[in-house]
Amino acid sequence: MLHTVPHGDINYGELAQLGLTPDDIIDFSANSNPFGPHPTVLEAIRAAVTVPKLRHYPDRDCLELRQAIALTEDIDPRFILPTNGANELIQLVALAFIKPGSRHLILSPTFGEYERAIRVMGGHVQPYFATGSYYRHDIAHVVSVIRQTQPATVWLCNPNNPTGQYLTPAELAELRASAQEETLWVIDESYQYFSGFEESLGRRAIAHHHNENIIVMRSLTKEHGLAGLRLGFAIATPERIEQLRVAQPAWSVNSLAQVAGVAALQPEVQAEQRRNIRQLLAYASTWWAELIATGLRVLPTSTSYTLIETGPAARTRQALLESRLLVRDCSSFGLPNHIRVAAQLPEQNRQLIEALNRIGKTDKGLT
């Protein structure tokens, strides 16, 4: 039986039962930019809230947005498809390319929507749970599994959610070389800029070699703090893009999201947001050291989010929520004794350390 996938976002009904609003909590559960949208983006959204803009349907082809993405990615606009968030793109890939009874490999633990989308289309999922230390993938072992199973598609998140593992271009190339030529690689790079690495093997292979068997998924909402608008895009060959377009509902990306995306991709905005994320990574590095100093087991990560071993994660999450701090219970990732936390600003990070110390002393969550 299919089920919905738990996520790390705010549960509005849960907060209402506790007499809280989203403004009452600090959200460590979502891997997003805590600096928020750039003022230029907010101004563009405000300017777009007009009767004519809202009365007309959005540009179904997202022409201006596609051009802005293409300039940023240094690729022809024909290789771009804007979507209603990266999550819609996952569904489109499944609709366009998953055949009933086909076999698909997912490098886990990772985002649960990959598996759900494949199962909805009748595909068989072979989750491959990481065998290395700290739930990281041993490349040689993954190569062996790919050779044995020869899946129709391989899905991986890079850097990975929730582990923060970053596979290098050389490691990805080694994995791809182990598969059949027709295997489709779905590479989710939603957190690319939260790793400090800007290299994209998938984009490079598509742009320079027109590799038809790679689809790169990207998100604009996380880097620019725009999760409420939903905005992502695919990078693939024009042939693959057209197959995705056939599966996509008309007017999928609304007018305000398109305006926000164009503004967010202006060079000066991009430059400032990248500086903000570099600052965030510095905050995160300091925070990991402080958390480790308290005796917590903090797993290595290449990103601004990480896993912390706390004992029963559901209990830890609930205890922290009572302190108005929201973290991600990782039970749905197959990690019932871990929470995932995303670095915020220093004062907020300190509040979580204090709360975790209180929980440990009162035995409400931590082992």
Overall description:
- With 367 residues, the protein is of the alpha/beta class.
- It folds into 2 domains: 12-37 and 269-362, Alpha-Beta Complex (Aspartate Aminotransferase, domain 1); 39-266, 3-Layer(aba) Sandwich (Aspartate Aminotransferase, domain 2).
- It has 14 helices and 13 strands.
- The chain has a 7-stranded mixed beta sheet, sandwiched between helices. Strands 9-10-13-12 form a 4-stranded antiparallel beta sheet, with helices on one face. Strands 1-11 form a two-stranded parallel sheet.
- It starts with 11 loop residues before the first helix and ends in a 5-residue tail after the last helix.
- The model has no long low-confidence stretch (mean pLDDT 92).
Q: Assign the CATH architecture of the largest domain.
A: 3-Layer(aba) Sandwich
Radius of gyration: 20 Å
Name of the CATH first level of the largest domain: Alpha Beta
Q: Summarize the amount of helix as a percent range.
A: 40-55%
Average pLDDT: 92
Uncertain regions spanning at least 5 consecutive residues: none
- The fraction of residues in strands falls at 5-15%
Say what the CATH topology of the largest domain is: Aspartate Aminotransferase, domain 2
Structural class computed from helices and strand pairing: alpha/beta
Number of domains: 2
Give the helices and strands as they follow along the chain. HEHHHEHEHEHEHEHEEHHHEEHEEEH
Shape: globular
Please count the beta strands (DSSP E, at least 2 residues each): 13
Quick tags:
367 residues, alpha/beta, Aspartate Aminotransferase, domain 1, Aspartate Aminotransferase, domain 2, 2 domains, 7-stranded mixed sheet, 4-stranded antiparallel sheet, 14 helices, 42% helix
